[in-house]
Specification:
Layout lengths: L3 H8 L3 H9 L6 H14 L5 H8 L4 E6 L5 H16 L3 E6 L6 H14 L4 E4 L6 H10 L3 E4 L10 E2 L3 H14 L5 E5 L5 H16 L9 E3 L4 H12 L4 E2 L1 E4 L2 H13 L9 E6 L12 E4 L2 H17 L12 E3 L19 E2 L1
Parallel strand pairs: 1-2, 1-3, 3-4, 4-5, 6-7, 6-9, 9-10, 10-11
Antiparallel strand pairs: 8-13, 11-12
Length: 348
Amino acid sequence: MATIKDVAKLAGVGVGTASRAISGRGSVSPDAAARVHAAIAALDFRPSSIGRALSTQSLGMIGLFVPSFKGNFYSTILETTDNELRAMHRHMVVANGSGEGNGREQALDAIEFLIQRDCDGIVVISHELNDDDLARIQQRMPKIVVLNRNSTHLRDACFSVDHCYGGVLAARTLLEHGHRELAVLAGPSSAPDNVDRVNGFLREVAAHGIEPTAVPIVESNFTPDGGWHAMKALAERGLSFTGLFCANDDMAIGALSYLRQSGISVPNDLSVVGYDDVDAAAHAAPTLTSIHVPMGELTANAVRWLINQCYGSALPVVREFPISVSMRASVAQVRKMPRGRARGGVSV
């Protein structure tokens, strides 16, 4: 296997010159650089990652923590992070929340794993970690970026959207279609983004004269199975409502499955709004109206910001990510029934 000494000898330059030509750091004449690269091609030379790390004090790796590899939401983050790093000839090391302990302990263990791998920086998305946890992590790993939440300790390192406004948009979507009997399938109350979107929803319905305490809320997790069971729990209350807001699309897809199995027609009997607008929303049955959160764009800019911090690059970064509504078939105008008949909706 060829070494850098072989490259230098064939190119007729010193080892230091060959090293600078390979790394792109330091002054090298165009003629010398051309001869070094010709020698690299002739010898099929591959500089080792260990050698690069010793010379640059960097392994060229960024760590990524996600709570789970499952679900449509996290797949966007994984794919986008990998694409951004590959474009800069960097690599990704991924850890998820698994093993013993609660969600917070699993997250801390996974991030410790990434720190021990000597990653140059870390991307974190977690609602289990509190602000003090994030501050302590940043003390050990200054180059960190946090997705989908804000922290008073790490303002510059946080990239998120206005989830409260997302909840407002969900409420407006149902209200504008005449729905005033509403229900909510919420995510975990420990998740700040979930709290924001549900509070935004309730604030908007209150502004339209609907008492928030009259809106039934069932809490579950952000999974299709969680949505299915939350919808079942709501059904067992025997309440009447015509509009349903689900705090994420995976839960909405689970709810749609339960409704279909129960013979409840969406949107004829019940209109449903999801949240996140993941790819699967456009392929649900019926296709799911959802609050569009540009998570791919948010992740890309967060990763670019971290790349700039780690490697001194100057990639363009934006921090404003507008939320919108993706209207599809799961929402329709509330049915107006003839006088004397029960009004449209679902009594579940």
